[in-house]
Specification:
With 499 residues, this protein is an alpha/beta fold. The protein folds into three domains: 201 residues, Spore Coat Polysaccharide Biosynthesis Protein SpsA, Chain A; 119 residues, no CATH class; 165 residues, Rossmann fold (3-Layer(aba) Sandwich), CATH 3.40.50. It has 19 helices and 13 strands. Helix 11 runs antiparallel to helix 12 and helix 14 runs parallel beside helix 19.
């Protein structure tokens, strides 16, 4: 492998479309060096496991989201990877034969302030006729900025901003939002020289009505990035103001008719009809004008304005008071005794390790979302001569056996009088866990049952959450920003991005 590619992973989110096979065949047949791995993120709620492996591909891993949408799928992909660069490809594109080689060239020797490199997109349109309305819309991808059909990001840049905002439920605007947040950190995005082909997917007559749901996402973009977000994201306004005017005319016509004002109703209806006819003709005039296309344009041109307006208004309501996306933490550290397992003082017997209710399920939910997990535990029984290091480690092994693997396990064998820097509330174990996994402490959450756990998190620059038990003191509760009823509730907060 060449230097840039060996530090790169390719992430392909998919809902199992047949086009995935076309993409994988192209990647398998392409000459040249390979990246470190290919991560296929299966975003179907259910279904038989995907089998993307084939000769010629880099090492392949398949992970599943259970159906969380494209933003969540991409987040799971980059969190699963451990390379410096994450190259995203959509499952309906076809890379050129020299894509690997050009990716290597595009990423090699980029300055440290460059966080991402976008590939170039071509959308083939028919030569023998004008393109349909759907084909023209898809062709806009060729000139779009910062779309993740082919975009490579530094993993550190994704981690710094929390990755893709999962409040964008569709493959629309989530990539522009990410690009703006990355550039807000002072980083740059550049265009590379690699190419992909984005064929126009087959679509039914009503596809243009369904995509109007994206108007709600435009409201979220404005809430998050301000009124000039379109200029920064190179996103055209489109016809939404006209759609609002046409819809207002239709509502007015109905209102006047109901109020017994026929002339006003007729005037408003004429305005609606004129606006709808102008919209339909603008779409028909540019297209092939076949009978099917004209019928589709007439039907959907009447439906699109009210649908666009409805989704925009729904977005205004839904996204009131929205806060900046923080994303999931990169690491969640748990105290052991009293938090993950029932507290048995100075326990050295693995058979006395009993998980609290919901601990395994909470840990598995974090792992499933690509969040790494670890343990930070004071074990002063070693310093007191009550247990040995071997017994502590045997109990930690039993913990992993019962609750699943941990990415890091830290314990302090010292007593309160030893003056070490690792014993909580000192930050040593939290810092050591973050350093071991190359995680910024600001992207780490510590969950424990006493004030020392929260204080250690704060001292390390992490976020502390308290799950109180019978040993938790009132002053510890009062001093904690986060007090949750259970480990399950704490993980709910983490996975909702509220931490």
């Amino acid at each position: 492998m060449s230097p840039a590619l060996e530090r790169s992973s390719v992430v392909v989110p998919t809902i199992g479309r047949p086009s995935l096979d076309v993409l994988l065949d192209a990647l398998a047949a392409a000459p040249g060096p390979r990246p470190a791995e290919l991560i296929v993120v299966d975003d179907r709620p259910t279904g038989e496991p995907l089998r993307p492996e084939r000769p010629g591909l880099p090492p392949v891993r398949v992970v599943r989201t259970g159906g969380g949408g494209p933003a969540r799928a991409r987040n799971l992909g980059w969190r699963t990877a451990r390379t410096e660069w994450i190259a995203f490809l959509d499952d309906d594109v076809v890379p050129d034969a020299d894509w690997y080689q050009r990716l290597e060239h595009d990423l090699a020797d980029l300055p440290a302030d460059v966080a991402g490199s976008q590939g170039r997109v071509r959308v083939p349109l028919p030569d023998d006729r004008p393109p349909t309305d759907w084909e023209r819309g898809t062709a806009g991808l060729a000139t779009s900025s910062w779309i993740t059909a082919d975009l490579a990001y530094r993993r550190a840049a994704l981690a710094a901003v929390g990755g893709f905002d999962e409040r964008f439920p569709r493959a629309f605007r989530e990539d522009s939002d990410l690009a703006l947040r990355v550039m807000d950190t002072g980083a740059r995005l550049v265009r590379g020289e690699r190419w992909i082909t984005h064929p126009v997917r087959p679509a039914d007559r009503w596809i243009s009505t369904r995509v109007q749901a994206g108007n709600a996402d435009d409201v979220l973009m404005r809430r998050l990035h301000g009124p000039d977000w379109r200029d920064r994201a190179d996103a055209a306004l489109g016809r939404r103001p006209q759609h609002t005017a046409v819809t207002t005319a239709a509502v007015a016509a109905l209102g006047f008719a109901a109020a017994g004002r026929p002339r006003a109703a007729a005037l408003a209806a004429a305005c609606w009809l004129a606006g709808t006819a102008e919209f339909a003709w603008a779409r028909i005039a540019s297209g092939p004008r076949t009978r099917d296309e004209v019928t589709t344009m007439l039907l959907t041109s009447a439906a699109i304005p009210p649908l666009a307006t409805w989704h925009w208004l729904a977005g205004v309501v839904r996204h009131r008071g929205v806060r900046a996306w923080r994303g999931l933490p990169d690491l969640v550290l748990f105290d052991r005794d009293g938090t993950l397992v029932h507290d048995v003082p100075y326990n050295g017997d693995p058979q006395e390790v009993w998980p609290v209710d919901g601990a395994k399920e909470a840990l598995d939910r974090l792992r499933a979302r690509g969040v790494r997990v670890g343990v930070v535990s004071n074990q002063s029984g070693v310093a007191r001569g009550l247990i040995t290091r071997a017994q502590v480690e045997a109990c930690m092994d039993r913990l992993a056996e019962l609750l699943g693997p941990f990415d890091t396990v830290q314990y302090c064998p010292h007593g309160p009088e030893d003056g070490c820097t690792c014993r909580k509330p000192a930050p040593g174990m939290v810092k050591a866990a973050c350093a071991e996994l190359d995680v910024d402490p600001a992207r780490c959450v510590v969950i424990g049952d006493i004030g020392a756990d929260v204080e250690a998190a704060t001292a390390a620059g992490a976020v502390g959450m308290l799950v109180p038990t019978s040993v938790t003191r009132d002053e510890e509760l009062a001093a904690s920003d986060w007090v949750l009823a259970s480990v399950t509730e704490a993980v709910d907060v983490v996975l909702d991005g509220q931490w």
